[in-house]
Amino acid sequence: MVRSGGPETMIVTNFILDGNAIRLLPLFTSLGNFKDGGRLNVGANQVGGAYSGNFTVTVNYL
């Protein structure tokens, strides 16, 4: 994660996915919902501000 307007960063680790790793979708639909989370590592003297970042999620559809 990078602070808006500055070079400061924070790292997200320990990503998790709720529920089972293998999901079944109902017939005749291509929609599925999932929740994810992780640990945001904030430094002792972390500069305040708005931090943002992008995360890639890969889904293997069989």
Automatic annotation (TrEMBL):
Matching Pfam families, A to Z? DUF4402
In terms of InterPro entries, this protein maps to: DUF4402 (IPR025514)
- Domain of life, per UniProt, equals Bacteria
Spell out the protein name for this chain: DUF4402 domain-containing protein
- Report the source organism: Parasphingorhabdus halotolerans
